[in-house]
Write a structure and sequence with these properties.
By secondary structure, this protein is an alpha/beta fold. The protein is built from 16 helices and 11 strands. The protein has a 5-stranded parallel sheet with strand order 2-1-3-4-5, sandwiched between helices. Strands 6-11-10 form a 3-stranded antiparallel sheet.
Length: about 325
């Protein structure tokens, strides 16, 4: 079974390599049509090819090209009303003879939209009808009976991805543009969420002056339910006192609670800034030489808040 699985993957990857080497002027023309279209990219198909078409519509839409999926069977029952002369209709049929797809060409042509067929047969009825053909070059499926759409489906998906990414790059579609189209879920949060969205404000953390005695520092940390205290003097951030700093101080003064915050403060403790992406702040926690759980958020020497590692994890960026 392992060898059989490996054979399928190798056959499909070889087909993709052949398709990649064969990309040429027709691919460039298709990308230019899509880039210059005043309307939408409408993907259309049935069966497994329809699944690839539906996936392609999602990829185009999320990368800056307005797109939607049109089921070929529903199209002839009124849904062709969605098509306008400004649209590009991207049709999917491995054989190029799928009846539900082929019969759409005359109607789409009458509506004034351009058609691009993704197929494995350049000499098919669909290829004859289409304005432009993108040939995947797939003549044999990975299915041992050469029946189940396997290699052809993968090739259609890869061709669609190649088109979408080529157009995205030509359009100058940026990381920030991508983030606006993915505001929810872990992906959106990784692209949009910043330290300022997750940090605890000054009023909710432990803040002490340099002359605050040890017992008062402990009380302030307990009140804020956080494992650190930030030391601030005349409005300026001076450093951090961690629970480890506190323990080490108490062990050095076992006879009584002596000293002040200035005796425990670590002025070199790691800090962060409010505009940093939350996922980058998480990387800073992970890459720090010591295992830390908090970072003060500082700007121009002023304490703005506290970033807590467990708050980052709760935010859902991983």
């Amino acid at each position: 079974m392992i060898e059989g699985g490996r054979s399928v993957v190798m056959q499909e990857s070889a087909a993709l390599a052949r398709m990649a080497s064969g990309l040429g002027l027709s691919f460039q023309t298709a990308a230019e049509w899509i880039l210059g279209a005043a309307g939408r990219v409408i993907t259309c198909g049935v069966g497994k090819s329809g699944h690839m078409a539906r996936k392609a519509a999602g990829t185009f839409s999320s990368t800056g090209t307005p797109s939607f999926f049109l089921h070929a069977s529903e199209a002839v029952h009124g849904d062709l009303g969605m098509v306008t002369p400004a649209d590009i209709v991207l049709l999917y049929s491995q054989s190029g003879e799928t009846d539900e797809v082929v019969r759409l060409f005359p109607s789409i042509r009458d509506l004034g939209a351009k058609t691009i067929l993704i197929t494995g047969r350049e000499t098919s009825s669909g290829a004859w009808e289409a304005d432009l053909v993108l040939n995947t070059g797939v003549t044999e499926e990975a299915c041992p009976h050469n029946l189940a759409p396997t290699t052809s489906a993968i090739a259609m998906s890869a061709m669609s991805d190649a088109l979408a990414v080529a157009v995205m790059e030509a359009r100058g579609f940026s990381r920030d543009d991508f983030a606006r189209f993915h505001p929810s879920g872990a992906l959106g949060k990784r692209l949009l969420l910043r330290v300022s969205d997750v940090m605890r404000p000054v009023g909710e953390i432990a803040v002490v002056a340099p002359d605050t005695d040890v017992l008062a520092v402990i009380r302030e940390m307990t009140r804020a339910s956080v494992g650190v205290a930030c030391v601030v003097e005349n409005g300026a951030y001076r450093g951090l006192i961690s629970e480890g700093d506190l323990r080490r101080h108490l062990l050095a003064h076992t006879e009584k609670l002596t000293g002040t915050a200035s005796d425990m403060v670590n002025p070199g403790a790691a800090t962060t800034v409010r505009d940093l992406l939350a996922v980058e702040a998480l990387e800073a926690f992970q890459n720090h030489p010591k295992k830390i759980g908090e970072m003060p958020v500082v700007a121009d020497g002023v304490l703005l808040g506290l970033l807590v590692l467990k708050d980052l994890l709760r935010a859902g960026i991983v």
